[in-house]
Amino acid sequence: MQAAATPPAPLPEGSRHAGGERAPLARDVAGFLSFPRYDAVPGTPPQVPGASPAQPLTFTRLPGACRTKSGNYGNFTSVSHVDAQGCEERCRVDPACVAFEFGEGMCEVHHFGTVRTDPSKHARACWFKDTINQSHFKPMAPLECGGLGDDCSSSRCCKQPHHHCFSKVPGWATCLVDCAPGVHMMDPPEYREPWSCELLPKLGEPAYPSLFCFMAMRSTGKDLALGRHQFQEKSGVFGCNDYTVFSDKPVSLGPNALATVLTHFSAQTGVQGALTATWVNTNAFNEAWSVIMQDARPWHSDWIVKVDPDTVFFPMRLKIRLHGLQHKIGAAHASGGVYFRNCMAPGLQLFGSLEIVSHRALGALKGRGTRCDGADNFRMGEDMWLQRCLDNVGAVGIEESELLRDGYCPVAGPKACEFGAVAFHPFKTVQQWQACHVAGSQAPAQPFVSVNLQ
Description:
The chain is an alpha+beta fold. It folds into 3 domains: 26-46 and 56-136, Hepatocyte Growth Factor, CATH 3.50.4.10; 143-206, no CATH class; 211-441, Spore Coat Polysaccharide Biosynthesis Protein SpsA, Chain A. It has 8 helices and 26 strands. A hairpin with a 5-residue loop joins strand 1 and strand 2. The longest helix has 13 residues, at 221-233.
């Protein structure tokens, strides 16, 4: 594995341009510090007004990190295994590149928009073009997509269907169907660094969304066994960017994994039919959602996901699915946020075995006031209450029945654990859960194609 390049040392904020005066700073509406285009490294020749287009392109170094006007993530592509000079060359040959930043072993080539700098990115240095002349640029040769075992951190694409580029450490990634964070014992002993399993988007595409996941489980019996098994395998909610677990007692799932106690969790009453996913549990999950809203972590995540212990859940697959559903989410998210309806039955269409709520919808839920109060709350399940409450606060329910295969959904009925869905339910024992997880992980085999070599 190739070592990450050493980033150049960051410059002090407000460095002096070639003329010697201190460069003026201006703060734009987004809170970024905008540096003028002549804020150069001391000793760098200044851009000469009216310079001949035949002169080489010049780059000016800025303190902080470049971002484009399009937002926090900007419109950029990332390249690994390249030093600052190589990053500059990438920008030179890309007609759309207006700036680049380098640091932490990564090169980001920025396109379009207005270049800004973020002084909080102390480990990065930023350059932009002083002269842009389209006739000087040559198109960049396309990067070959990665195969099994190949490093895909530069191309960000994979040859095999159903494979995606997962990062292990900064500067190295490979193509996999799925990925569990942590040490992979299949790796050779000398390469057993923990995997981050960050999904790397294709060049020019937005980043994959982040997930905060939670689960509520009983402190004994099958729930506890399922929770401990998933924690050990780093699967289910434990494969999300961050997570929390609730229970009726402070039970341990493993090292540094203690469940948060919900006082209402033990006061549940069984109900019949599909009105709920087995339990009248509104009070318990109201308490869980209240705790979630007081936690800082969900507010830094794109999506909040509630998963039942007996749900076989593939978090990386959900990220991929959400990434591909941007056309559906789009404008709906700009209102009161979105959630997903996962069973197209009359009445209840948000089954509690998998609840997916956007960051903005969580905010609407927090500010619900009395809009979700009702005399019948005490007799309904949490999933029915949540669906009605999200509707009342203006969140948009998007129909996406293929996210979840739930045996309790009267429309779909039981379905086999086959590759494709994000989650499967219910699987009450560790053996059943693991068998479904293995079956659901198997990508469809590609048909054999014979080749005539004569």
